[in-house]
Amino acid sequence: NSGTDSISVESRNGAIIDANGNADNFIAQLVNLRALTGIGSFADSIETRTAELDVINTGINQGIIDIRNTGDVLLTKLINAGDINFNNDTNVTLDTVVADFSQGGVNGGDFFFNVESGSVLGVNRGPGVEFLTIPDITADSASITVSGSFGEFERPIVLKLRSNLLLLSTISSRFFLDGPPTTVRDNSAIQLSISDSLNSVSGQQLIEVESLADVNRAIFTDLRNYDMEEISVRLPRDQIFEDELQDYDAQ
What angle do CA 38, 22, 97 make, to 5 degrees? Predict the structure, then answer.
């Protein structure tokens, strides 16, 4: 317990295990943990009370990372060459989470993530859409339960997954780097996803709304339908690109 300072613990040839039951193991503003054969276990998590976690287990498929934190937290690094189980009671900000045997691609490793009473945000990576090239979560599969929102409209969570995603939240805003995994089950009440064509649109974000029930019908009141071989929708003049105005006015 170091209060507002930092704690660093390293087990170069072994594991970091819990020896005090459900009591907190580390209390500090920043907690750094390094091990070879695991940090915590499914049977007995490492308990932390910190605002920032920097945790790496280096052994290839040797033990898991299992941590339960109390309080809003930034996951600067949560990296294991294997599985990760992380639980938090309030808001979580993601920077780098990697559950991957190779730590270079997506070759195995599952991420189990639960937020009991809060939301999940992506770390601020600066202006523009550069953040879409940097995964917040890398794993073979991810099982995520969040009582609040998962990502934001302006800053979706970037996922690099191979096999499966199971997600439950109130509102999900997500982007799959290198395409979606084999199976996607998003049971969130409202689901937003940025189109893969985002990068080709200069300074604009294309948002896909999963259900027409989520769209307010009033936004269509100023549109006029007309027929030309197929059914089309004619947009108002102020919604036309400049290079199309001449053709628009000629009609």
Answer: 40
DSSP string, the chain: --TTSEEEEEESSS-B---STTS-SEESSEEEEEESS-BS-SSSPEEEE-SEEEEEE-STT---EEEEE-S-EEEEEEEESS-EEEEESS-EEES-EEE-SSSSS--S-EEEEEESSS-EEE----STTGGGGS-SEEEEEEEEEESS-BS-SSSPEEEEEEEEEEEE-SEEEEEETTS--SEEEE--SEEEEE-GGGGGSTT---EEES-GGGS-GGGGTT-EEEEESEEEEEPPGGGS-GGGHHHHHH-
- The residues spanned by each domain of the chain are 6-216, 219-250
pTM exceeds 0.70? yes
Q: What is the pLDDT of residues 196-241, one digit of tens each?
A: 335 433 344 545 555 555 555 554 444 444 444 455 556 665 665 6
pLDDT tens for residues 84-143?
Answer: 999 999 999 999 999 986 655 556 799 999 999 999 999 999 988 889 999 999 999 999
